[in-house]
UniProtKB/TrEMBL annotation, chains A, B:
Listed InterPro entries: Glycosyl_Trfase_fam3, Glycosyl_Trfase_fam3_N_dom, Glycosyl_Trfase_fam3_N_dom_sf, Nuc_phospho_transferase, PYNP-like_C_sf, PYNP_C, Pyrmidine_PPase_CS, Thym_Pase_Put
EC numbers: 2.4.2.4
Organism encoding this protein: Flagellimonas pacifica
PANTHER family per the UniProt record, alphabetical: THYMIDINE PHOSPHORYLASE (PTHR10515:SF0)
Molecular functions per Gene Ontology: 1,4-alpha-oligoglucan phosphorylase activity; thymidine phosphorylase activity
The keyword Transferase is assigned to this record: yes
Keyword field: Glycosyltransferase, Transferase
EC top class named in words: transferase
One of the protein's GO biological processes: pyrimidine nucleobase metabolic process
Domain (Pyrimidine nucleoside phosphorylase C-terminal): residue spans on this chain: 430-497
Protein name: thymidine phosphorylase
Catalytic function, reaction form: thymidine + phosphate = 2-deoxy-alpha-D-ribose 1-phosphate + thymine
GO cellular component, one term: cytosol
Amino acid sequence: MEEKSNTLKYKHLGIYTQNENVVYMRKDCHVCISEGFEALTRIRVSNFKTSIVASLNVITSEVLLPGEIGLSQASAKKLGVSVNDTLRVSHLEPLDSLSYVRAKIYNQRLDYNAYEAIITDIIEGDYSNIHLSAFITACAGDRMDTDEISDLTKTMIASGKRLNWNKEIVVDKHCIGGLPGNRTTPIVVAIVAAHGLTMPKTSSRAITSPAGTADTMEVLTNVTLSAGEIKEVVEKEGGCLVWGGTTQLSPADDILIKVEKALDIDSEGQLIASVLSKKAAAGSTHVVIDIPVGETAKVRSTEMAEKLKEHMETVGKAVGLHVKVVLTEGTQPVGRGIGPNLEAIDVLGVLKNEKNAPQDLKERALMLAGTLLELSGKVEEQKGQEIAKHVLESGQAYKKFEAICTAQGRFSKTFVAPYQFEMHAPKCGTIRKINNRKIAKLAKLSGAPQSSTAGILMNARLGEEIEKGQLLYTLHAESNGELNYALEYYENHDDIIVID
Amino acid sequence: MEEKSNTLKYKHLGIYTQNENVVYMRKDCHVCISEGFEALTRIRVSNFKTSIVASLNVITSEVLLPGEIGLSQASAKKLGVSVNDTLRVSHLEPLDSLSYVRAKIYNQRLDYNAYEAIITDIIEGDYSNIHLSAFITACAGDRMDTDEISDLTKTMIASGKRLNWNKEIVVDKHCIGGLPGNRTTPIVVAIVAAHGLTMPKTSSRAITSPAGTADTMEVLTNVTLSAGEIKEVVEKEGGCLVWGGTTQLSPADDILIKVEKALDIDSEGQLIASVLSKKAAAGSTHVVIDIPVGETAKVRSTEMAEKLKEHMETVGKAVGLHVKVVLTEGTQPVGRGIGPNLEAIDVLGVLKNEKNAPQDLKERALMLAGTLLELSGKVEEQKGQEIAKHVLESGQAYKKFEAICTAQGRFSKTFVAPYQFEMHAPKCGTIRKINNRKIAKLAKLSGAPQSSTAGILMNARLGEEIEKGQLLYTLHAESNGELNYALEYYENHDDIIVID
């Protein structure tokens, strides 16, 4: 099939394109001419052992010589190539799974085999960003029924590694985001693990928010651990707080999430499949899911939340998980900090039982830890929260948290951003609304989560009576440029906090 | 807002990424660090006069020096930059129109203003391929009502130039593709223009097919004409056969079509908006639309076709066009050739009244030309087809065709591909099915339309009794590699032509 002449010498170009595989070839290279390749042609690139699929970018300058080939960083890493290696290129055989994506675009139901074919090709890296975006969009907006979501979840579980903790009960929790600063997870893990349960928590980085649990935990400890290292930490401490991306649990999810981030969407079907596939693959048996409900939270109405709850619990059962969904208030940010370091400061405050620690964050964490203790069967119904409170206030939870961080390799202190800008009330009155989305946007424009000390420190709560000129919140940034983008956004939006 | 230090020197990298704007900057460049840019960040790049939005690819090698910036070819052209020009980069202000795309993903109706905002940003180049793909997918699969399609069509018309021919009646035709070899347009234009009507035909290149009318016409004449040149040709000959891409009519459509091609979809709403916006912008008043219906055509059932017909005629009226939709048989390819040169040979055969010219192509062209003559009011009802036949068989149509090609700059001869491979019947029997989609795929794998002599020459018709070993069709290719990809596809699909 492939001819010997379809070979080119690898040259290091060092172009980082995020997750997308890109191959660079000269327009006048013999292979482009003989194969009829043109820009954006999908090409298979092989090192004679393994191969990847990449989109072609055509080079017309001396960056490459004829007979040379370049690869984006991710592709070069996947193929494990070195300078002057010989690579072979060929046309991509038609991707059959794309016909399922098209069927889904046209509102057809897909079965297990269809989702399996799609997920397999996604993990192989055979989908371009255009294909990934179409698949995500076609699955969004209520276009999957619970059987389909179950099938997608199962294929995502089957596509990666699956952990086994040799425990009958392994607990986990998850929050359907949307609420800035809602960083209960580290507190819940500390309480539950201190009480003797096994909670190997893998978290994602921020998708559309100013910080994910992994971003916040990375301030305090190492979160990028190998499967072996995670196992060691959990065996020793009963819990961990790591990033899920390196664990090869549900690897398709990691690819899909990057495109969802660019689109700034998180659809119901993908959301359920993403959460539950990670939980099942991580070896969990009992999972509590927190859905904050509020006008500007991710889930806006009790009706939507109830539907999501029902779907989550149905799909959970279908994939063999005990799932309990809790609806919580989602009308304003939780705690004071928004952004990795600022949230880490709140978490430590609660764990250390500091006087000025944010009480709303503490109460949420206790409720969730209590629910998890009850769901596990480890404590009696109605007793969970009381026991959680005791574990926290006695200092056992902080001790456990410190031990987990140390087991993960370090327990670091937090930092405060060099650039700060205080926002004051333009008039007196009552705080009527705090727009979670706009607060999150502001924190992201300030640089969170990439700049780990960036974000927002809130100083206002719903219903509070305030004076004109009173401090509402402080912007934190690591560069003047980022601070300016946040300020520009602030100047163009007068409904971030509504006072009247 | 922007600091002076946000400037970099332009270096020519000569990387061609098709339509997507990509900017290349060093990871360790002062701007990336101070602004917090990372791979795939959307960045505004300005030459102090105009600006574009591009996705960042980060360079870690000596391809660029710190302080230098590169651009993909399309972006460099849009900005009109030269080596060592100073460019300024800044964060992209949040794109408000993406919130409408998200609303559409979540099944909400969009109004005129929303579509206008989206189309404006698309034309500005502010959407990445991920965003374009999401917009196309969200609009596919029956997710737009006719009011929405009308609004989208109107915004697409308003977004570009609009031609004015100073004629009361300007006719046009369009075929909703899906049928390989169905190249009636050049014949219809020749007949109708020879009869004295004005038909300034702009066509697209292939979206998902082995050839578009523009690809086929490019074999015979120049199709890339300026608006001024088109005007001259039409004033002289009453008709033209040019590519619509350079005319800046409905420029959003040209951008969307490239992504649709990568997805291999063509959704109803986008399809109607694409076709009718081009027609209205081209100054047409009366339009006949041909919808071939068949199991493997683009429109698979009479029911779907009737719905599309109704929507087309409704939207047509809303944007001020007289639209008549004709449903035609779509069970097999039309004519013999599939691919630019092979189709051009068929078209010339019909126009020259050659004995062995494909009769099915001739009959279709006469029916459409007749319908158009009647719709225009230029000839009596029921008389159109008879008059069209006379114009064709008298040689007037060929004379007009030759004159149009000459006016467009050349009238070239056709060529035949260097690589050919005959496909013979594996058994005797009756030809029961010819799969249009798979025949088209085979022609595309053979290299059509990029390789203009590539494609398929059909030698079989539905219902025909054949002997074992009889010639069914011939693959034509310009490279051995492409021929092999077609053969590999053939070997893996035994239902391209069904004989029993």
